């Protein structure tokens, strides 16, 4: 691990998380929780296998991630964030907000776009405007992948598969889903571009309106 050799909390933090791919590995584990090595590799297009292994070893040594053996029927090694690693959620959220303006032009032709990235961005960017004890479940059907995110005041969870009773379901490309959840497009604009919205309780305008307010 390289060091800046500066007695400064910013520099010391960057000694741990400043290497390329580290914060994106944190992103992956925030998005979908405990993950297999192959899950992480699939969510990080462009990373070499040996580099991912090296980064995971460094992150374990720094106390950011830990590996454990999942019991049957999974029966494989999984990686998860430690409590210390999960403290980086606010850092990832700040980067997501700061980077929104850079998303406005749309993806470059070579850019990968994955549905769970858009789900995490939405979960991080949607502010805590839910009342005490409230809960909203957002289903996402995109790029042959089905996800759901559960939003509560100050907290979220993202899972694979369909939610049994989603309050609102978004069906379309990951780019359109992400644009709506982040407030870059209104639901009406996204529908005009091909997004399908199933929102019987009219929950979405409140959620994404709040997201737009935080990025104004």
From TrEMBL:
Which positions make up the signal peptide?
Answer: none
The reply to whether RNA-binding figures as a keyword in the UniProt entry is no
Q: Is this entry keyworded Transcription regulation?
A: yes
Ranges where the HTH hxlR-type domain occurs: 8-107
Q: Which Pfam families match?
A: HxlR
UniProt keyword annotations, A-Z: DNA-binding, Transcription, Transcription regulation
Q: Which InterPro entries match?
A: HTH_HxlR (IPR002577), SCP2_sterol-bd_dom_sf (IPR036527), WH-like_DNA-bd_sf (IPR036388), WH_DNA-bd_sf (IPR036390)
The name this protein goes by in its record: Helix-turn-helix transcriptional regulator
Instruction: Look up and give the organism this protein is from.
Output: Actinacidiphila acidipaludis
């Amino acid at each position: 691990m390289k060091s800046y050799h500066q007695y400064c909390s910013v520099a010391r933090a960057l000694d741990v998380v400043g290497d390329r791919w580290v914060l994106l590995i944190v992103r992956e584990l925030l998005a979908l929780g405990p993950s297999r090595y192959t899950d992480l590799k699939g969510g990080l297009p462009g990373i070499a296998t040996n580099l991912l292994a090296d980064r995971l070893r460094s992150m374990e040594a720094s106390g950011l991630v830990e590996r454990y053996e999942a019991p049957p029927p999974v029966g494989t090694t999984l990686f998860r964030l430690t409590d210390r690693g999960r403290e980086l959620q606010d850092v990832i959220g700040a980067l997501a907000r700061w980077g929104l303006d850079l998303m406005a032009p749309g993806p470059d032709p070579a850019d990968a776009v994955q549905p769970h990235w858009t789900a995490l961005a939405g979960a991080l960017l949607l502010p805590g405007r839910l009342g005490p004890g409230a809960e909203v479940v957002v289903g996402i059907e995109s790029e042959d992948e089905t996800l759901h995110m559960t939003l509560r005041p100050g907290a979220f969870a993202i899972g694979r598969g369909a939610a049994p009773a989603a309050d609102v379901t978004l069906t379309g490309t990951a780019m359109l889903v992400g644009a709506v959840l982040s407030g870059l497009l209104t639901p009406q604009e996204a529908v005009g571009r091909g997004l399908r919205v199933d929102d019987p309780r009219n929950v979405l305008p409140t959620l994404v309106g709040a997201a737009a307010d935080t990025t104004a």
